[in-house]
Amino acid sequence: MRTATSSWDGIPVIKTGDDYVESLRGRDLDVYLFGDRLVEPVDHPIVRPSINALKMSYDLAIADPELATAHSDLIDAPVNRFLHIVGSPADLVAKNKMQRRMGQLTGTCFQRCAGLDTISVLHSITYDIDAKHGTHYHARYLRFMAEAQRRNIVIGAGMTDPKGDRSKRPHEQADPDLFMRVVKRDAEGLYVRGAKAHMTGGLNSHFICVMPTMNMTKDDTDYAVVGMVPLTAEGLTYIYGRQSCDMRAMEDGDIDAGNARFGGQEVLVVFDDVFIPWEHVLMDGEHEFAQEMVARFTSYHRASYVCKTGLGDVMVGAAASIARQNGADHASHIKDKLVEMTHLNETIYSSAIASSHEATQLESGIFMNDSMLANVCKHNVTRYPYEISRLAQDLAGGLMVTLPSDADFKNPKTGPLLDKYLQGRSNRPVEDRRRMLRLIENMTLGRNAVGYLTESLHGAGSPQAQRIQILRGMEVDKKIDLAERLAGIEADPKDAGE
Ligand SMILES: Cc1cc2nc3c(=O)[nH]c(=O)nc-3n(C[C@H](O)[C@H](O)[C@H](O)COP(=O)(O)OP(=O)(O)OC[C@H]3O[C@@H](n4cnc5c(N)ncnc54)[C@H](O)[C@@H]3O)c2cc1C
């Protein structure tokens, strides 16, 4: 992997979902799960649901090309919308609609948004760095993107460093590798050391884009690095993250898993002096751009959390279905709770869609979401899915957490007892009730609660990160001025600009 060209070795042109799954096979990656090296992740029952979820982005592009593909001016051909360089606010709105649909179809994190938002921010940041420093990052970026679109690949976003002591800057950490840094440069490229944490779909990608996780100072220059790394690069180790109830995927039967087909994936990726050829380096030491890069990334990515409204649609449906199966659906408080769930879900949607409609064009030509509305969207997402989940659990009843296992339903003695006593409405099979209870459990306490709840809280930045952005953009002085004018208070010149 000494050249940019050889970085593409083994990555085929992917047309269908099945092609995508095949493209992940036989890569001989150094992957660890439950203490053992995982030779072929693709067929592992814990890994496979996450691949199925990402595969849906390829299937949807074929089933609904208007929603999930777009015309690329770069290669003058239709491309998957997850690789499209947004050319208008309408493109961003279409992206949000696709993300909601993907959430509806999978009920989990389908792992392709962070990569899309990474390529979006790199369009403008590489352009701006070049304008200031006379570098050639933007042309490299465009060449990389053209090949990425031609092959229809998945790009993972490696932004979050382990970060060690949160009160210290990268160069101040006791272990300098707690933030990713450049450890060597030569004529052909540079070498990075460190790790990227919580990487969504890390193992299901073809390239990882490494980039700074926060603002950088002059002393952090070696930490201000952006590069495209193929998953097969030498020196990478992948350690698979556990998810709550993940062992249910190893059991017989598909009921107790809750959502047996689809799941998310997070991986800790360790970079042990990994080489990146210059052609794939998109920032090297321009530390003053790190903060702006993170801010622009979050403008895109915080609106991408609209995907959770697709999961919210599933939650509303699951709550209504279980209420119906329990014979409680006619009660007015049940209908009211479904209304409340829908209201919360659509509130998230409205802030995301508004942020896309209000997108503005940057110097490079790309459009970017309105930052305030994107932050409001993500801040809503840190709260409302929890309330929606609480209401779904309310409607489900306690059986959601006391339901015996599938094996007990199959046992000749206990099975008939359970079928007799766990009956809801008599015209519905007990198995339907079990399936719906397990789905709600899966999304609110189990594997896909990672995607629906905790990712909603911390992904794209913990709640305080949005509050900081809202504080920066809220223009309180202008608002004081509005209020004081109406109140008949004359502006005090001393206060101007405070
Ligand atoms: C499911 C999931 C998927 C994710 N996917 C990706 C991905 O694909 N790519 C990627 O790059 N990242 C990903 N992330 C990472 C995500 O962006 C981080 O979790 C988030 O930025 C918070 O960082 P942290 O987890 O290290 O928590 P911390 O930074 O440790 O935050 C924990 C708490 O401490 C507070 N805190 C942190 N630092 C300070 C400080 N200096 N002063 C005061 N308070 C502080 C925070 O506000 C928060 O309340 C994912 C996370 C999750 C949970």
UniProtKB/TrEMBL annotation:
Residues 290-488 form the HpaB/PvcC/4-BUDH C-terminal domain. Pfam families: HpaB, HpaB_N. Keywords: FAD, Flavoprotein, Oxidoreductase. InterPro entries: Acyl-CoA_Oxase/DH_mid-dom_sf, AcylCo_DH-like_C, AcylCoA_DH/oxidase_NM_dom_sf, HpaB/PvcC/4-BUDH, HpaB/PvcC/4-BUDH_C, HpaB/PvcC/4-BUDH_N. GO terms for molecular function: oxidoreductase activity, acting on the CH-CH group of donors. The keyword Oxidoreductase applies. Residues 16-283 form the HpaB/PvcC/4-BUDH N-terminal domain. The keyword Lipoprotein does not apply. FAD binds at residue 200. PANTHER family: 4-HYDROXYPHENYLACETATE 3-MONOOXYGENASE-RELATED. This is 4-hydroxybutyryl-CoA dehydratase. The lineage of its organism: Bacteria, Pseudomonadati, Pseudomonadota, Alphaproteobacteria, Maricaulales. The gene is abfD.
